[in-house]
Amino acid sequence: MSIHDPHQLMAPADSNGTTPAKEQQAAGVGILLQIMMLVLSFVLGHVLRRHKFYYLPEASASLLIGLIVGGLANISDTETSIRAWFNFHEEFFFLFLLPPIIFQSGFSLSPKPFFSNFGAIVTFAILGTFIASVVTGVLVYLGGLMYLTYRLPFVECLMFGALISATDPVTVLSIFQELGTDTNLYALVFGESVLNDAMAISLYRTMSLVRSHASSGENFFMVIVRFLETFVGSMSAGVGVGFTSALLFKYAGLDIDNLQNLECCLFVLFPYFSYMLAEGLGLSGIVSILFTGMVMKHYTYSNLSENSQRFVSAFFHLISSLAETFVFIYMGFDIAMEKHSWSHVGFIFFSIIFIGVARAANVFSCAYLVNLSRPAHRQIPVKHQKALWYSGLRGAMAFALALQSVHDLPEGHGQTIFTATTAIVVLTVLLIGGSTGTMLEALQVVGDGHESTLGETFDGNHGYMAPSYEDDEEESSGNRIKMKLKELHKSAASFTALDRNYLTPFFTSQNGDEAEEFDEPMSSSSRAVGSFHGHG
Questions:
Q1: CA pseudo-torsion sign 445, 450, 456, 461
Q2: Can you tell me the distance from the alpha carbon of 490 to that of 471, in angstroms, rounded to the nearest whole number?
Q3: Mean pLDDT across 32-48
């Protein structure tokens, strides 16, 4: 990437005849302010964490710093050229800030808790996000028909439903790590949020395409096909790049002392290659880079030398932590600076109620489906379902898509959606984020897995475990749905066997048994560095 790209993306659209020297000075002041806010955010976050003050999590602190500085800049007579450096550009967000955050999400997933709950995570993230989007869209549309809210066309209501379904529970996850909570609950919330972003952006883009092709009368079946094309195509691109990198590092012989620099450089470039390949093909870079992260952690990572493993783990944690913190500051500043359409307060109020209802429909219906396929001792408890419902905060992804909707939708409509999304993001991050510790204690899910790291507690009886099928046959009630869901679980177990017996030996320089042993220290070491993750 050229070093000037961010400058071009963030530079003021109209320089008002200012000289290049003046512009450069304004750029310097703008960037200096951003660095000062970052430093303040990290220091404040550390102080809050050290004093175990959970009512103002780090993400909330970053957002507040941005809001306060933005508010001050708004009321003071700040130069336009400096203020222009703080405008939230969705291109800058999607091309520079989001990729390292999403890659790190996939890269830091501990394989055992993630894959042992894989069926549940996919159900919540894909089916659940679809349910939440449709329920939100339909309720907003009905609210418009009943004159409760600002009236939007049905497709635009579905676009709003899709963008507002993108959850961003970095605050909740960081508090989960601080207080210690059940390993499976953490895996469910984390796994759902990672896949959910990819699902929400694919749904939003699909609905946007439907809206622009509304005159061609595309039927519902074609919408589903278009969505699947985007999602499956992006996933295939990401997995393909991940496998290619694994083979390159396996056979290129780079894991010798004097080639570590080259090894690390190549490893860092692959995620961006995956992201840009998908974007270039008209697919979703977010979905692609997420699956690249998962595949590279599982296969490519073990082909690196020990020093390179330590470096790339620390590097991606560092970059994603900086990006996450900057996103919340950037967002706070922009919320204070942007023009908002506050004339439709009813739309905001009812939208908050509607997304609560939609989140409940998502979590409780999907949990019911998952529990159908699990015996009694492995069911998702009601208290975990409530924690899942509560942890559906809205964050940067919803904000960026809402900002994009201002350009995508006609005058007034996009602005109303943007203002509603802004209010929802601030409310959920500050109020729900701040009360998460209290909620976890009230639901009594604190401390369930406090001493153990992810990936190490899976031999004990820990709530709902990975499926084992020896005694499941007698329990089948003849219920057709149950049998189908159990078949899905069995296929997941057979994938684990396929991975251990064929994929791991083919793509890495170790056999499947060694890989299992390797996973244990790897997950605990990544957790050690990863306690930093979710800084938000």
A1: negative
A2: 13
A3: 88
